[in-house]
Automatic annotation (TrEMBL):
InterPro entries: AAA+_ATPase, ABC_transporter-like_ATP-bd, ABC_transporter-like_CS, ABC_transpr_MalK/UgpC-like, Mo/tungstate-bd_C_term_dom, NA-bd_OB-fold, P-loop_NTPase, Transp-assoc_OB_typ2. It holds the Pfam family TOBE_2. Keywords: ATP-binding, Cell membrane, Membrane, Nucleotide-binding, Translocase, Transport. GO terms for cellular component: ATP-binding cassette (ABC) transporter complex, substrate-binding subunit-containing. The lineage of its organism: Bacteria, Bacillati, Bacillota, Bacilli, Bacillales. It comes from Alkalicoccobacillus porphyridii. This is ABC transporter ATP-binding protein. The keyword Metal-binding does not apply. It comes from the Bacteria.
Length: 380
């Protein structure tokens, strides 16, 4: 049984249906991220879990206890849910020192002064801010203040730590640093962490699992790499990846006994039939920019394209290529020297392709194990 279960959650604000049948299981020790665009219901789900909001329908189970049941109107208070919260705005007490802010979390617990001091110092040490313990929040940078807020949340040793966009007020450089810090902290504490963000890089780099939200629903729950390689829906394929996925209009038809043929601006691609889970004719083909290789000289089975723009970024080069009606985005490691308007020859990696039913947006190819990928034949 999962450590945390959200089952059939439905939530309304007045008449607005903001959560639509949310189902999710979170294992103990997971770093689960709720990812999605603004307004899709991530924070509301987190607040239901924390006990700061109530749902009309559905239950929430933490450990072996039902902490919220919409229909039965049972809602355990936040203090009985073994969790703590870190918000975007650090919510520190301005008149208290760092030490006092963190020890405040321990108030009400029967601990002597020495124990309190020890616990606070351990938390501050973990966040590498022990040297600032006598300072006031106004004497700290944004990043340091957020560290205090996290130290205050972990000092009570909660089993679950909820973090709502905790890094969004920090500048880009600090955000990158804090990502690594949070990941290290998760590894060290083994606390179950649930993290809300709309930043897909943050989600990809830190999480053990990601739940992708869209318009009050969860579209996919998966490990980051699985989510990246096999988005199960066009909306997820659009949302995950930077630079973005390439989308091509395509048709998929049976081609003999054992293959299907996918026709698009990438030419005719033949794949083993076992690759598709459902034979749909009107499809969208996706390919990641790094799965497109470019050659200046003609290659067998390559399609011809024209270079539109070259965007060198030092470690990588983004190349825009006109290919039939499609404008493709390719990513090359290092410096790519291509002249605008020159002709190039491109190939795609078979294992980087996915196809989606245009009508429903659902992925209609299987996730194949690495060992099966050699069974796929691709040629144009
Ligand atoms: N207290 C509230 N009263 C009325 N509507 C609300 C309230 N809180 C959230 N909503 C609405 O519920 C929907 C979901 O909001 P929520 O904050 O969960 O989204 P989110 O995905 O966390 O977005 P963001 O990343 O912008 O915080 C939005 O349409 C929002 O306007």
């Amino acid at each position: 049984m999962a450590f945390i279960t959200l089952q059939g959650l439905n939530k309304y604000f007045d008449k607005q249906h903001v959560l639509k049948d949310i189902n999710l299981e979170i294992e103990e020790g997971d770093f689960m991220t709720f990812l999605g665009p603004s307004g899709c219901g991530k924070t509301t789900t987190l607040r239901l879990l924390a006990g700061l909001e109530t749902q009309e329908e559905g239950i929430i189970v933490i450990g072996d206890k039902i902490v919220a049941d919409g229909k039965a109107h049972i809602f355990a208070p936040p203090a009985e849910r073994q969790l703590n919260l870190v918000f975007q705005n650090y919510a520190l007490w301005p008149h208290m020192t760092v030490f006092e802010n963190v020890s405040f979390g321990l108030e009400g617990r029967k601990l002597n002064k020495k124990e309190i001091q020890r616990k606070v110092e351990i938390s501050l040490e973990k966040l590498q801010i022990l040297t600032y313990k006598d300072r006031y929040p106004s004497e700290l940078s944004g990043g340091q203040q957020q560290r205090v807020a996290i130290a205050r949340a972990i000092v009570t040793e909660p089993k679950i730590l909820l973090l709502d966009e905790p890094l969004s007020n920090l500048d880009a450089k600090l955000r990158v640093e804090m990502r690594a810090e949070l990941k290290r902290l998760h590894h060290e504490l083994k606390t179950t962490m649930i993290y809300v963000t709309h930043d897909q890089i943050e989600a990809m780099t830190m999480s053990t699992k990601i739940a992708v939200f869209s318009e009050g629903r969860i579209l996919q729950v998966d490990k980051p790499i699985q989510l990246y390689q096999y988005p199960n829906h066009l909306t997820v394929a659009q949302f995950i990846g930077n630079p973005a996925n390439n989308f091509l209009d395509a048709t998929c038809k049976e081609h003999g006994q054992t293959t299907v043929q996918i026709q698009s601006d990438l030419g005719k691609i033949e794949m083993s039939k076992q690759w598709v889970s459902e034979l749909v004719e009107d499809v969208v083909l996706t390919v990641r920019p790094e799965d497109i290789s470019i050659s200046k000289t003609p290659l067998k089975n390559a399609v011809t394209g024209t270079i539109k723009t070259v965007l060198p970024a030092g470690s990588e080069t983004i190349v825009h290529i006109r290919c039939g009606e499609s404008l493709l985005l390719a990513k090359e490691i290092g410096v790519g020297n291509y002249l605008p308007d020159s002709t190039v020859y491109i190939k795609v990696k078979a294992e980087g392709l996915n196809i989606y039913d245009r009508a429903t947006g659902a992925r209609v190819n299987h996730v194949l194990e690495q060992s099966h990928q050699t069974d796929l034949h691709v040629y144009v």
